[in-house]
Amino acid sequence: MKNLKDKTPNILVIGDLMIDHYLWGTTNRISPEAPVQVVDIEKETTVLGGAGNVISNLKALGAKVSVIGVIGDDDIGEELNQILYKLDTDVNLVTENGRKTSKKSRIIASNQQIIRYDKESVNDINQQSEISILNSLKKNIEKYDVILLSDYGKGVLTETLTQKIISISNENNKKVLVDPKGKNYAKYKDAYLLTPNKKEASEATSINIQDKDTLALSIEKLKVECKLEISLITLSEDGIAIFDNNLRTKPTVAREVFDVTGAGDTVLASIGFGLSCRLNIDECISFANLAAGVVVGKLGSATATLNEIIEYESSLNKSTSYSHIKSLNEIEILSKELKAKGKKLVFTNGCFDILHVGHVKYLETAKSFGDILVLGLNSDVSVRRLKGATRPINTQEDRAYTLAALESVDYVVLFEDDTPYDLIKVVNPHILVKGGDYEGKNVVGQDLVDELKLVQFVEGRSTTKTIQRIKENETNNK
């Protein structure tokens, strides 16, 4: 997903805007007035909710965001307006007299939601508000890459307005993506795609999704009846199902779940962002799964940045060799953590200039003595002092990366000194491993470890002999 880092698509969000208000505290007692918990509030936070959470997710991804919505003529409406301006969004809000701007307040104690209370209007917006929204859309539609409709059933996306938005957008070749609400999906007809979850899709199609067959029936029915380009159904821990010409499921990615609040907003935002950046639908769904995996690991209506998504993707795959190359400070912290977990640490060191089978077998044997193998690697300067001006053949960066890629090597640490004594003190391993040629000799660092292990090298395999063979071949070929 690194190719998305420099993208700044312009995305329009229309929908039910609201404020998510959190009261954070602790609870250690029961009220004497009633059998309820008493929460001592320690802090308050306020973020955008509803369609606003889609906006926050888009901003976190780096998009330029435009907003069209409706607020009431109240303090909450003004507060919401100010939050949007601080997010550096292009704001176009219609104020409707007598309407209550939505605000949901949640009390959280010890990372658990205790109660939520709402202030809002849920009736349909009036005709004048609809006209104002459409006028704004028509005026600016050319600058939008994608249009997202976030329907929370609070009255902004009426059936008439929604159909007109989709019609205008299609006439201008703009994709409309919808996070739907309720059972009446006729209002979303001709959209590019919808993002209902399994329960919502079951209710909308009157097909109880229980297996692959009922999933196929439901997702195809949505595509046909709503005349969608792409039909999607989110399946929680089972991923996201896609149907265009064929049905397939993109699996989700495992992560500890703390709070699913707003995960659907993240899916809508990330698919919209991906499509705006010219990803195909399968790439968009994979991206959305990763983004959702990040946000469910946070409390409240959270967002995922591109860096967080990239790091998360890396953590799910086999990590790169660079992540196994550590500094002195890093290996000191890691060693303490690993030993605290009961891991047996093994240490060895060397130049490992031209990697060969003798090196590999030596390191595999070294790893077999414990749980974690830390390899101290002589820097280029150190190698030159030990072996002469013509060495090393390979740079320290190349040697470190190659060694870190080996399955037997857990961590590589470069050191500048002629001996690894100070590094061994930092790592504080249980076992020190050296070559069999140290038999009967004093080994540097032996006094710092519980045990010394000597490993015989493979006969006839060494960097020096490899270099000799290369030179002989060059001479013979002249």
Give a quick precis of the structure:
The chain has 15 helices and 19 strands. By secondary structure, it is α/β, with parallel strands linked by helices.
Number of domains: 2
Structural class: alpha/beta
Q: What's the average pLDDT?
A: 90
Which descriptor suits the 3D outline?
elongated
Beginning-to-end CA distance, first to last residue: 49 Å
Q: Compute the CA-based radius of gyration.
A: 30 Å
CATH topology of the largest domain: UDP-N-acetylmuramoyl-L-alanine:D-glutamate ligase
CATH superfamily descriptor of the largest domain: Ribokinase
Walk me through this protein's architecture:
- With 478 residues, the chain is an alpha/beta fold.
- The chain has 2 domains: 2-316, UDP-N-acetylmuramoyl-L-alanine:D-glutamate ligase (3-Layer(aba) Sandwich); 321-476, HUPs (Rossmann fold).
- 37% of the residues lie in helices and 25% in strands.
- The protein contains 15 helices and 19 strands.
- It has helices at residues 51-61, 75-86, 127-140, 159-171, 198-205, 212-226, 263-276, 281-295, 306-316, 328-340, 357-367, 380-387, 396-404, 421-427, 463-476, and strands at residues 10-15, 17-30, 37-50, 64-72, 90-96, 102-109, 112-119, 146-150, 175-179, 193-194, 231-234, 240-243, 247-250, 325-326, 345-350, 372-378, 411-415, 431-435, 451-455.
- It has a 6-stranded parallel sheet, with helices on both faces.
- A hairpin with a 3-residue loop joins strand 12 and strand 13 (247-250).
- Helix 1 crosses helix 7, helix 5 packs across helix 6 (212-226) and helix 8 (281-295) packs across helix 9 (306-316).
- The longest helix is centred in the middle third of the chain and has 15 residues, at 212-226.
- The mean pLDDT is 90.
